[in-house]
Inverse folding.
């Protein structure tokens, strides 16, 4: 009915009532990633791909509505594909969107949060402002995948293997420490700031002077009296400071004197009191409601005639049994106290035959929440001390070749109007490992967004590379070489891009390398230092690392690190027996504790804190890989490169199992073999693999035949050139040995030794046919431990036992690769203690290299004793001063380095003022202690030569003299003489060097000689077939013109040896016999036809030497062999021959 001219209209309003929608739950965990403490590595595990389930599909940091009614901790997550490979020493990092309480007690530096509750906002949802939230990290569990599912490895609630970490030292807006980023297995929180400036660290420490100590906190005690209320009547109910009082009679606020007399205060200091009187019905009834749930409460009251009954009730009004403490303060006055209870109400009652006069002076209380807060602070303070156990323990690493997931359990508590509701949330982050550095294919980075648009566009890929600190040139090219794989070429660098399910993974192929594929980032220093600084030829060699778990990374992967030396031509350095020199199995700890800058900051804070009793000396020391010189001498003044090459296998059976090994019983066994790991009876710490069952029936094959089969355990590994070493023993008399380049049951090499059959044998099984490559008669000792080493490079196979060469053969059609196996037959006690496989292939992976040049000296002693015991005189240059700090000011004139150590006596104005030591090579003075001694007797014995007497001593009847051989010189027949009277010396013999004779024989009989082929005559053979480099001398006499005599050396067998022969008819000749071929090594000339004169002057000279007669007189010939060099000394002549083409490496001697 609107007035004209407005028309009437109708409106329909529909009202709908529904339950208020609950606000969404915030998602505490924002991101999971994998970091590293040494390099800037950050492998993000994105939500939806590797962080599952994805409760936040719209990326607003709140749980989506579709999951609101689900169980958010149900374990129904499927393992994703394309799980990234992480280093063994990876450090998982969890980033939270809001500060979280560390309820899991995982952080070494956890702090209680201020404030405890947070108010958050959510775009489009104003109802959230009415709620408060508390976020907690409840638990972290590390699990690994096995055949039956997921197995727990470590957890925050685990007693045996607890997870720990540190929180990023961060502050909230009020300057309080807060917790939003957690890194697992990290001891110092400042590892986060490793790649930033010190400004952040210094600022945080300045704002938190007590860090990492949690400040002390005392629960807040609230005391309520009635001094602030006006006097007068208040009726039967009264509320004051949150406490409500209710009674059947009126309350009054009166002066204290109305209840107690001034001289009877008993410590009561109030001015007013709450008073009530029962004058008609003599029944006292008062009900007190406390403002919160109370942990501790006290009440001061007055009542004559005894205490009233006080009942303490919980929030559900159930009576609580309490231990009430009552203290009388005066006549009718009492102090009552109760603690350790959840009290909400007090009910006070009493009955009397007389009027009741009752007064309350004070009520004090501590709420349960305040008490819990105090206990939390105490817990955090205690945790700061207990976390030192992690500092005193070794660094943590993951198992190799394992798939992992990290279960992160958080909890969100929502509060509104004192009503609380909680929601537990579980999420899983996935990653996997491969091997230690050198054995893991680590990606440079990964791309998860816009994969299809990026993969075919080189410009977009270049931008992604630059985001990760890798810059490609304008000439770089992109080419797809197979499905879902692209290659980027950039000069000498090659990168591989692989496409997965919504993911691009980038690897380095050539010219660029992931920093954790090598050990360079782990190395603190090397011995010797990298560079051209001369290094003593017989000093120790090793590597010092900046972490304490480097050895463990390789040990748990059944690998190890060994050091190999290579010469300037890139060839491996070998010892006198031709073995490649390797330094290994020498892990240790340094003398000093080494800390990084970040560790040093945190240690300083803990040492200077008031809450931590920290012991710096208990910090574990870093790893070192050190090898003592022992008998190893390098060549002088050579350039060497040391390469750290991981072993292919290092098995010690310490795990107690035979993981990785597979058992095969060849042929037709009666029973299955019994291989098991057991402990040494004399030393339970020594574990070994043992086979104890007779597998075959007697007579199934001829045990002396090479094809006779046995049982063996082989290890998976497709290796080419390698050296396998097995430490083994046998308590029985059957066959035991090692198989190598094993391809299958019908194709392999086998070295074995049999006590019963008395042989050592190297055989090749090819297509089920046996070929004996080498064999000799030999018997091992029961129970004795032998180290069997087999070196297989290309077709060359060398067998050593206890370091001594046994067989050296060449297979012209070799197996090029294969596994290794441990073998036995007819042996009820075959033991294998340790197995080492070294990579000798041309493409062996080196994880760290360093170069050095060798000194001309073996060691410092050799160096300093190059001094020729003569002190010269020099004058101090004009204007110089021995008190100067710099040598250039002390001695401004140029000094030429000498060939040996020289010492000058320095004079100034005819006064002796000092000594000047000059050396051809630097002296590391920080390792030298210097002292000068004086002797009153001067005896000049001349300048020392090649051999120098350096010191002498006497103890009782024992006397000794130290002799230094300064150059390569044989001491045979050298003498040391002494004189008792220096003034009138009479020289007497002290010692005569007889040399090191391998053997000596002066008389021969017919039985000494063995028959050789008729054209070769007879010979006497002695010595050891392992002898390689030596000198042999023979005295002989030729009685007729056609007789021949001489020396056999490096005699291997009847068809392999060298022979130096002398005859009156043919002169002197040097032969080498290999199989049926006899090669003339000297004289080296081509005979001409008689009618043609020789135009070869060198050959003519040798022909004259050859025709020189030696008959009918006694002669002495000496042969010296050193590697491929042969020297012959005789009749005043010296002949040198180089046999570089397949020289015979070792063998006996003979005549």
């Amino acid at each position: 009915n609107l007035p004209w001219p407005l028309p009437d209209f109708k409106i329909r309003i529909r009202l709908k009532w529904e339950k208020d929608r609950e606000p969404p739950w915030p998602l505490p965990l924002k991101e999971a990633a994998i970091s590293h403490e040494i390099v800037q590595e950050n492998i993000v595990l994105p939500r939806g791909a590797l962080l599952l389930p994805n409760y936040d599909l719209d990326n607003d940091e709140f749980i989506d509505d579709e999951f609101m009614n689900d169980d958010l901790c149900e374990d129904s997550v499927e393992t994703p594909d394309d799980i990234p490979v992480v280093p063994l020493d990876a450090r998982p990092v969890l980033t939270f969107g809001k500060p979280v309480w560390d309820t899991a007690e995982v952080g070494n530096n956890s702090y209680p949060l201020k404030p405890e509750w947070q108010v958050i906002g959510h775009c489009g949802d104003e109802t959230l402002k009415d709620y408060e939230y508390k976020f907690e990290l409840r638990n972290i569990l590390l699990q690994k995948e096995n055949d039956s599912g997921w197995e727990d490895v470590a957890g925050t609630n685990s007693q045996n293997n607890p997870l720990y970490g540190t929180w990023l030292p961060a502050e909230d807006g009020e300057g309080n420490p807060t917790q939003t980023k957690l890194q697992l297995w990290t001891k110092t929180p400042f590892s986060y700031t490793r790649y930033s400036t010190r400004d952040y660290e210094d600022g945080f420490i300045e704002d938190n002077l007590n860090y990492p100590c949690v400040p002390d906190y005392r629960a807040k005690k609230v005391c309520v009296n009635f001094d602030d209320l006006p006097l007068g009547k208040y009726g039967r109910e009264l509320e004051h400071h949150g406490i409500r009082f209710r009674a059947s009679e009126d309350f009054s606020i009166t002066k204290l004197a109305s209840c107690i007399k001034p001289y009877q205060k008993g410590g009561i200091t109030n001015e007013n009191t709450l008073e009530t009187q029962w004058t008609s019905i003599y029944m006292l009834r008062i009900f007190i409601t406390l403002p919160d749930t109370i942990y501790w409460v006290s009440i001061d009251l007055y009542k004559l005639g005894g205490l009233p009954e006080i009942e303490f009730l919980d929030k559900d009004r159930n009576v609580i049994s309490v231990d009430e403490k009552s203290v009388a303060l005066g006549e009718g006055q009492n102090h009552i106290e109760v603690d350790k209870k959840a009290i909400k109400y007090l009910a006070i009652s009493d009955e009397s035959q007389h009027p009741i006069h009752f007064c309350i002076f004070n009520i004090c209380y501590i709420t349960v929440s305040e008490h819990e807060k105090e206990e939390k602070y105490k817990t955090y303070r205690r945790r700061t001390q207990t976390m030192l156990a992690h500092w005193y323990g070794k660094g943590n690493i993951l198992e190799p070749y394992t798939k992992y997931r990290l279960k992160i359990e958080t909890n969100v508590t929502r509060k509104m109007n004192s009503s609380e509701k909680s929601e537990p949330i579980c999420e899983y982050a996935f990653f996997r490992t491969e091997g230690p550095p050198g054995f893991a294919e680590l990606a440079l980075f990964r791309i998860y967004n816009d994969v299809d648009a990026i993969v075919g566009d080189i410009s977009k890929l270049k931008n992604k590379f630059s985001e990760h600190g890798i810059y490609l040139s304008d000439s770089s090219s992109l080419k797809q070489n197979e499905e879902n794989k692209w290659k980027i070429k950039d000069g000498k660098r090659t990168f591989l891009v692989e496409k997965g399910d919504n993911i691009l993974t980038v690897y380095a192929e050539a010219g660029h390398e992931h920093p954790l594929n090598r050990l360079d980032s782990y190395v603190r220093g090397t011995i010797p230092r990298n560079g051209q600084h001369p290094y003593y030829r017989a000093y120790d060699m090793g590597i010092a690392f900046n972490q304490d778990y480097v050895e463990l990374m390789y040990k748990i992967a059944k690998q190890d690190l060994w050091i190999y030396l290579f010469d300037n031509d890139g060839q491996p350095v070998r010892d006198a027996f031709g073995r490649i020199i390797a330094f290994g199995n020498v892990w240790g700890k340094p003398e000093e504790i080494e800390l990084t800058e970040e560790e040093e900051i945190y240690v300083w804070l803990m040492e200077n804190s008031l809450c931590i009793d920290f012991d710096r000396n208990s910090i574990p020391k870093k790893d070192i890989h050190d090898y003592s010189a022992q008998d190893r001498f390098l060549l002088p003044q050579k350039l060497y490169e040391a390469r750290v090459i991981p072993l292919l296998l290092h098995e010690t059976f310490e795990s107690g199992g035979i993981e990785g090994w597979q058992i095969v019983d060849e042929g037709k066994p009666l029973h299955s073999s019994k291989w098991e790991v057991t402990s040494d009876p004399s030393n339970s710490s020594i574990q070994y693999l043992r086979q104890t069952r007779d597998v075959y029936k007697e007579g199934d094959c001829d045990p002396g035949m090479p094809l006779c089969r046995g049982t063996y355990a082989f290890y998976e590994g497709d290796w080419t050139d390698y050296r396998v070493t097995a430490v083994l023993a046998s308590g029985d008399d059957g066959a035991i040995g090692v198989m190598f380049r094993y391809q299958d049951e019908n194709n392999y090499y086998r070295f074995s030794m049999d006590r019963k059959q008395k042989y050592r044998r190297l055989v090749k099984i090819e297509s089920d046919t046996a070929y004996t490559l080498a064999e000799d008669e030999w018997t091992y000792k029961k129970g004795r431990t032998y180290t069997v080493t087999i070196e297989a490079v290309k077709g060359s196979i060398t067998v050593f036992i206890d370091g001594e060469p046994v067989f050296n053969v060449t297979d012209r059609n070799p197996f090029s690769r294969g596994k290794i196996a441990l073998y036995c037959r007819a042996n009820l006690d075959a033991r294998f203690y340790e197995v080492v496989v070294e990579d000798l292939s041309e493409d062996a992976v080196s994880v760290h290299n360093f170069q050095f040049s060798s000194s001309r000296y073996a060691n410092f002693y050799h160096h300093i004793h190059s001094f020729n015991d003569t002190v010269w005189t020099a004058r101090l240059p004009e204007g110089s001063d021995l008190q100067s700090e710099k040598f250039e000011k002390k001695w401004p004139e140029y000094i030429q380095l000498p060939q040996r150590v020289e010492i000058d006596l320095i004079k100034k104005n005819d006064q002796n003022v000092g000594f000047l030591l000059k050396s051809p090579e630097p002296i590391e003075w920080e390792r030298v202690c210097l002292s000068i001694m004086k002797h009153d007797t001067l005896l000049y014995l001349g300048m020392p030569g090649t051999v120098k007497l350096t010191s002498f001593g006497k103890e009782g009847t024992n006397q000794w003299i130290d002799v230094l051989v300064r150059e390569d010189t044989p001491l045979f027949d050298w003498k040391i003489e002494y004189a008792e009277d220096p003034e009138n010396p009479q020289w007497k013999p002290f010692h005569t060097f007889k040399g090191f004779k391998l053997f000596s024989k002066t008389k021969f009989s017919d039985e000494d000689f063995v028959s050789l082929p008729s054209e070769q005559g007879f010979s006497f053979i002695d010595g050891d077939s392992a002898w390689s480099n030596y000198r042999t001398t023979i005295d002989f006499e030729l009685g007729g013109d056609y007789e021949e005599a001489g020396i056999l050396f490096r005699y291997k067998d009847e068809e392999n040896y060298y022979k130096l022969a002398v005859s009156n008819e043919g002169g002197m000749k040097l032969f080498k016999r290999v199989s049926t071929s006899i090669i003339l090594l000297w004289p080296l000339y081509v005979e001409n036809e008689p009618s043609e004169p020789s135009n070869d002057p060198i050959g003519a000279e040798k022909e004259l030497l050859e025709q020189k007669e030696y008959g009918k007189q006694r002669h002495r010939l000496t042969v010296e062999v050193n590697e491929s060099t042969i020297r012959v000394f005789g009749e005043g002549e010296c002949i040198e021959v180089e046999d570089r083409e397949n020289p015979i490496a070792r063998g006996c001697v003979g005549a």
Observations:
- The domain at 222-371 is CATH 2.60.120.260 (Jelly Rolls).
